[in-house]
Amino acid sequence: MKCTHCGFINKLDAKWCKHCKINLQSDNALMQSVTILHPSDNKSAIDASPDEQETKIPNPKLSKCKTCGQEVSKNATTCPHCGEQNPVKTKSSGCLLIIVGFIVFLFIVGLFSKNNNGGSSASAQVHCESFVKKNLKAPSTAQFASYSEVKISGYGDGPWTVIGYVDAQNSFGAKIRSTYTCTIHYSGDKIYLDNLQIF
């Protein structure tokens, strides 16, 4: 017996389709009571009377093949019409992408957000770099280490300690690398330098 939904050929006495798990007996009874109109008919579906129009009952166990658009079982591993592997679109990859994006967003917000009422590691680095620049011979030539190369410790109002390096020109115009250790703390809206060593 041929399944009218997926086209799979089952045994003559089969009650259920082996491929799409549709009830073959109720499916065949339904198909016998339904008039199907084809484009080759003389009457169009619009001109047909309500009794002659196609009656289609949606089946929650079926979905459209992502390649050919024909109905296949949601559990099908291969489309019987076009042979596409895994023909039914899954939504799990989209959900996974949303979850990963949300986790990355939380990480970035946590990285740059303020701890308690004080500063953050990123703001401590920026403030220390401005204090270091004030002590350089040619501050406009300064190139500081990236965030991932700097060691930062501290919490809330501080103290915050930043250890990093800066490449800048000396008084002779030669670019040299200097290591710095900077300690700051926050008090209200103000930032105070506790210690700065450049060597």
What descriptive keywords fit this protein?
199 residues; alpha+beta; five-stranded antiparallel β-sheet; two-stranded antiparallel ribbon; 22% helix
Question: What is the topology?
Answer:
Blueprint: H1 24-32, E1 62-64, E2 71-73, H2 92-112, H3 121-133, E3 143-144, E4 151-153, E5 160-169, E6 175-187, E7 190-198
Description:
The protein is an alpha+beta fold. The protein is built from three helices and seven strands. A hairpin with a 5-residue loop joins strand 5 and strand 6.
Short description:
The chain is an alpha+beta fold and 199 residues long. It has three helices and seven strands. The strands form two sheets. Strands 3, 4, 5, 6 and 7 form a five-stranded antiparallel beta sheet that branches. A two-stranded antiparallel ribbon has the order 1-2.
What characteristic shape results from the CA principal axes?
rod-shaped
Instruction: Tell me the fraction of residues in β-strands, as a range.
Output: 15-25%
The description of the largest β-sheet is: 5 strands, antiparallel
Task: Using the CA coordinates, give the radius of gyration.
Answer: 35 Å
Helix run count: 3
Count the beta strands: 7
pLDDT below 50 for ≥5 consecutive residues: which ranges?
29-38, 41-50
Average pLDDT, rounded to a whole number, is: 79
Structural class: alpha+beta
Which range best describes the helical content: under 10%, 10-25%, 25-40%, 40-55%, 55-70% or over 70%? 10-25%
Order of helices and strands: HEEHHEEEEE
Question: What is the rounded distance between the termini?
Answer: 87 Å
